[in-house]
Design goal:
With 256 residues, the protein is an alpha+beta fold. It contains eight helices and seven strands; from the N terminus they run ααααααβαββββββα.
């Protein structure tokens, strides 16, 4: 890798523009390479100096309303509060959506938001990996499905079934909001030993058949139920994840 490429990669890492997988790789390199870490520290010092030298541009007072109108995400009901991690993820997604809309125009935005199974799968995997970098992989911690399911009301348009499979070795531990195709969707979080399993539920955008995928050490199971697509992601081995999916689908069918 050239010096120029290395510098660009450091800039992208510092600005949070790398994918979760690339960010993890960079963190490992920084831990093993003092010279690279020193370069990042110098970059940070330069950034702080520039930030102090220029005044911030005031944010328009009506920006929040413009974002909501542009993307179509309604605010949470009065009195409810979305955890910090979800607000940050949602805010970042909305700002990026506005910027891309201005650069690409409506045709480009339609292409980006097309919701193909592969594009949606990449977003689901990114949400799962991002959650593993957080202190906890959920926004709400609870093993009670009667707490987790209603927590999504007002935060997403999908109210998922949240079966607890603790009796099968896969306890429900919480839920979070992820951003898929620019919209908030629910993700249920389960554990099996030390493994985290994310089950993300999004509107169905394709008639693609159910399938199993393997990407960068993670296994992804996808299946359709009505007008929804379920995505189960984990670093579990394929056999155990398939067992979880079969038990999850069976329990949801019983509760329907």
């Amino acid at each position: 890798m050239s010096v120029a490429d290395e510098t660009l990669l450091l800039h992208a890492y510092k600005d949070g523009e790398l994918s979760p997988r690339d960010a993890l790789n960079m963190e490992r390199r920084l831990a093993a390479d003092p010279a690279l870490q020193a370069s990042l520290d110098r970059l940070g010092g330069l950034s702080d100096a520039l930030r102090g030298a220029f005044a911030e541009v005031p944010v328009p007072l009506n920006l929040r309303d413009r974002v909501i109108r542009h993307v179509g995400v309604a605010p949470a009901p009065s009195g409810s509060r979305i955890p910090l991690s979800s607000r940050q993820s949602l805010g970042a997604a909305l700002v990026i959506g506005l910027a891309l809309g201005g650069v690409l125009g409506s045709g480009g935005m339609s292409l980006l938001m097309s919701g193909s199974p592969r594009a949606t799968g990449e977003a689901v995997l990114a949400g799962h990996l991002r959650s593993l970098l957080a202190p906890q992989p959920f926004d709400i911690a609870s093993s009670d499905r009667h707490v987790v399911k209603p927590w999504f009301n007002g935060r997403t348009t999908i109210a998922p079934s949240a079966p607890d499979l603790a009796d099968k070795g896969f306890p429900l531990v919480g839920g979070r909001v992820d951003i898929i195709d620019g919209k908030p969707v629910p993700s249920l979080v389960y554990r099996h030993d030390r493994h985290v399993i994310s089950v993300t539920i999004a509107p169905k955008t394709s008639e693609a058949p159910a399938e199993e995928e393997h990407r960068g050490g993670s296994t992804i199971e996808r299946w359709n139920v009505g007008d929804l697509t379920y995505w189960a992601v984990s670093d579990l081995n394929a056999r155990d994840l398939r067992s979880f999916v079969e038990m999850f689908r069976g329990r949801v069918a019983q509760e329907s």
